[in-house]
Write a structure and sequence with these properties.
This protein has about 160 residues and is mainly α. It is about 65% helix and about 0% strand. It has helices spanning about 1-10, 15-20, 20-30, 35-40, 55-75, 85-90, 100, 105-115, 120-140, 145-150. Helix 3 packs across helix 4 (about 35-40) and helix 5 (about 55-75) runs parallel beside helix 8. The longest helix has 20 residues, at about 55-75.
Length: about 160
């Protein structure tokens, strides 16, 4: 039955045979190795594609996309923390948060390092926006109201 399949379809691979005739394939490979190697198709070398990705092109593309989205994120009415993950989600580039991936994109990596915020930097930016808003509304800033609207604990403020 294994030989019939090989005769019917001469370009069949070992993997296809092992999937279709699991028991016979396993039995022959373990118990009659000589017959197995003589009658089954030769092992094929996997073809590897080297340098399939044009990292420079991808770097330039991501760099430009981030440059466009960054001002939009900064202008949002409710501030958001600027992170690599945020850009990944916004631009549907799911690898921007992975360090080993971004290191292949030098311009994008440099830009992300410049514009991403730590938690503390984000809190300061959010407080500055709230302070500006308070000064416009009633010309005074109250510590407790500021802390509440920024949602920051007293020990971190």
């Amino acid at each position: 039955m294994l030989l019939d399949a090989i005769k019917e379809c001469p370009d069949v691979t070992r993997t296809q045979l092992s999937q279709k005739f699991q028991r016979a394939y396993k039995y022959l490979s373990e118990n009659d190795k000589e017959w197995f190697d003589a009658n089954l198709p030769q092992k094929r070398q996997a073809t590897t594609i080297t340098n399939a990705t044009d990292w420079n092109k991808r770097d330039q593309e991501y760099y430009q996309k981030i440059k466009v989205v960054y001002p939009e994120l900064m202008a949002l009415e409710k501030p958001v923390r600027i992170t690599g993950t945020l850009f990944s989600k916004r631009l549907n580039i799911f690898n921007l948060a992975i360090k080993s991936y971004v290191e292949k994109l030098p311009k994008t990596n440099k830009l992300l390092n410049e514009i991403t915020e730590t938690v503390q930097e984000f809190r300061i930016r959010r407080c500055c926006l709230v302070i500006d808003q308070m000064l416009e509304e009633d010309n005074c800033v109250r510590f407790e109201k500021l802390r509440e609207s920024c949602a920051i604990e007293t020990k971190n403020f």
